[in-house]
């Protein structure tokens, strides 16, 4: 299991999710909830405690590394995100393949591939650069500390805002898996899948850092016709992944 870390940027601080973040998550999740149609977001203190308990159970099982997202200026909790779908490719090759289990000491294990997801931000933090910097911090840790080969992201294909935000990171759309799973609203959802590979990371990092420095959105990466959702409005928010 990768060791929990604190990741700090100019406007964003990511802390390992812990019980003491419950009140902050509850306040953040109780704001205008119109942007939370596609992802579970706690709405009060009891729900926030349950949200944290479930996330920490996933961490204890080696399946996720959850963070609280804080606004660096005042330390206010504004949302949450996490690494998940941790996969390990080291050790002897066996068949059928065993996924999600590190070879050797699990305490010092680092994944070869992972996903970034379960991201949500309070409405007042959306479009402020916090999400973009949070993704930069996580991608930088994954590619430069863990040395992963791939980072994946996904979104409900109906969630135009989230698909656009992922595309603006420079991720490549791998396609849409139709009727993939049941959505938060109970409807059967199709899921758009994206990825960034290790040899693509330097170019992606340069573009994201330029965006953050300029404080303005970049043109989204275009995907082949029919490969996935077309970009929607460029508001820089990433919720419902």
Quick summary:
The protein is 27% helix and 27% strand. The protein has helices at 22-29, 45-60, 130-146, 160-168, 201-214, and strands at 7-8, 12-16, 64-71, 76-87, 113-121, 150-156, 172-182, 188-197.
**Beginning-to-end CA distance, first to last residue:** 23 Å
Biggest sheet strand line-up: 1-2-3-4-5-6-8-7
Task: Give the SSE string.
Answer: EEHHEEEHEHEEH
Summed over residues and divided by their number, the pLDDT gives a mean of 86
- Give me the secondary-structure category: alpha+beta
Keywords, please?
single chain, 241 residues, alpha+beta, 8-stranded mixed beta sheet, disordered C terminus
How would you describe this protein?
Helices cover 27% and strands 27% of the residues. By secondary structure, the protein is α+β, with helices and mostly antiparallel strands. An 8-stranded mixed beta sheet has the order 1-2-3-4-5-6-8-7, with helices on both faces. It is globular. The two termini are 23 Å apart. The model is unreliable at 216-240 (pLDDT under 50).
Describe the secondary-structure layout.
Elements: E1 7-8, E2 12-16, H1 22-29, H2 45-60, E3 64-71, E4 76-87, E5 113-121, H3 130-146, E6 150-156, H4 160-168, E7 172-182, E8 188-197, H5 201-214
Parallel strand pairs: 5-6
Antiparallel strand pairs: 1-2, 2-3, 3-4, 4-5, 6-8, 7-8
Helix pairs in contact: 1-2, 3-5
